[in-house]
Structure formats: structure tokens, C-alpha cells
Amino acid sequence: MIQPIYSLVIPIYNEEENITEMYRRLHHVAEQLDGEVELILVDDGSRDRSLSMIRELRHLDSRVRYLSFARNFGHQIAVTAGLNFVQGKCAIIMDADLQDPPELIFQMLEKWQQGYEVVYAQRLSRKQESSLKRFTAYAFYRILRRLSHVDIPTDTGDFCLLDRQVVDILNAMPERNRYIRGLRAWVGFRQTAVLFEREPRFAGKVKYTFGKSWALAIDGIISFSTVPLKLATYIGMVAAAIALLMIILVLYWRLFDHASPLIGYSLITIAIFFLGSVQLICIGILGEYIGRIYEEVKARPIYTVKETGGLIKISEMQSRS
User: Fold this and answer.
1) pTM for the full model?
2) Gap between the Cα atoms of 262 and 265, Å rounded
């Protein structure tokens, strides 16, 4: 097996409508590169014809290599699995819906050859996306950057190029709740951006629903910031101050203003609901962090593989060298 220089990692979940066009464009890009290419397709438990189409591509092109999960584990885990099998001197991560244009790979490689170890694609705009989607994405990246102790670039997705050294460091990280964009920024090294206009999906339905996007946003914030924990403390202090003020007011009304309409059950009810909501918010924040500790302590494998084609595990590569 010829050692590849360039490794392309593409997570796939129910992308039967995009795989043919994706491969056509990637094949065109690969033919113009000056070294061997491997195309690692990670089937994230697809329920359509994606896996069978991937098998056909493997039969037609030996550069196509794949693994298929035993069930759906999620986009970030699929990317992680692909990186576990990378053999090239650099890895390029992109999605299968062609919102990440394969032709941008040439610009990424130019930056890599200039000495940058991480080259990420930074969006200038999002075509044909709703105003709500654009607003929430814009707000999330900026909130995360303010809350995080790591300088995570705004308006960037998983579309990026990683040097072999960075890939090895990411593979050595044991954490299970993975936010690749944050981990990519955390490792350091020389990093730069390549700007592009994000195209709409080539075909098919959007896989990142609001619920999945929300879960990814929570993972990003919890994984790279302790500010929510401090916020719970601050909320508790504010609640205590308000409670103290209410005690003073009730005593004043009882002693000097017996006719006040705020004395009685209405005030007590308001106070109970307010303090109860504060407690639930704080418990919820603590629960998010404790839940992630629980997942880490169990130490289960982050994915299970039912089928592979043409892949060599990193540990096996190292034992042969």
C-alpha cells in the first residue's frame, strides 16, 4: 500500500443524494495534487444507501477507504474516528453536503506549505440560510469566544486542514465529549484562515437540526469554559441580595404600612417561584458538568465499528514502523 501524503476525512450520515457528486469533485481535486491521496469516508450509521454506495466507490477506486459505525454516534465522533485512521502527512476534514467546497483544498495546502499547521475555512456568508439560523450562529460563536479561555475563531466549522503533528495530538486526547473546533484551537501551533462563501447543500435534508446544533453549542461552551459555574454563583448571590431586600420590605410594611397590598400570599408566592427558578438554573448548570464527568469516568469506547474497507489503525501503523 502506497503511503498517502494527503488524507481527506468525510463523515457521512444519510447522504446518498450527495455522494456521487462529492466523489466526482474530490476525484477532480485529487488528480491535480502532487502526491498520493486517501479518501476516508466515515459512515455514521446511515439508514439509506450511503454505505452501499461507499462500498461501490471502494471497489472502483482503491484510494477510497471507509469505516461504518454499528449505530449513529454523531458528527464529531465520526470526524474523530476518521482522524484515528489517517495515514497522510496532513488531514483535511470536510462535510459531504458540499457546503464545504472541495476546490478550497488547494488554498489550504498553499498555507500548509507555507508552514501553518492548522488551516481552517472561515465563512464570509451563509447562502440560502434563514435569518434565525444566521443570527444564532453569529451569536453562538461570539458568546463562545467571550466565555472560553481558548481563542476559538468565529464563523468556522469543521472544514480545515491539520498537520500530521496536530492529528497525532488530537488522537491522543482521551475526552469523549468532543468539540473539534475547540480542540483544534486548543492545541496551538501556527494557525490561519482561508475565507470562503458557504454554499447551500447540494441535495438532501439538513442533518444538523436545531436540537443537534443546540447540543453541539452546549458541548462547546461546557468543554471550554467554567464561566457557567461562576455564573451560577453570581445568580445565587443576586438572589440572596433580593431575598434580603424583600425581608426588609416585609418587615417595614408589617410595622409601618399595614394597608400595603403587597403583604400576603402574593408576595410569598412570587418569592417562592423566583428562588425556585434560581435553584433549578444552578442545578441545571451543575448537572451539565457532572453529566460530562460521568461520561468520562465510564471510559467506554466512543464508537463501535461494524465494517471497514482498506483502513489501517494508527496503532498498527506505529507497530510496523
Assistant:
1) 0.69
2) 8
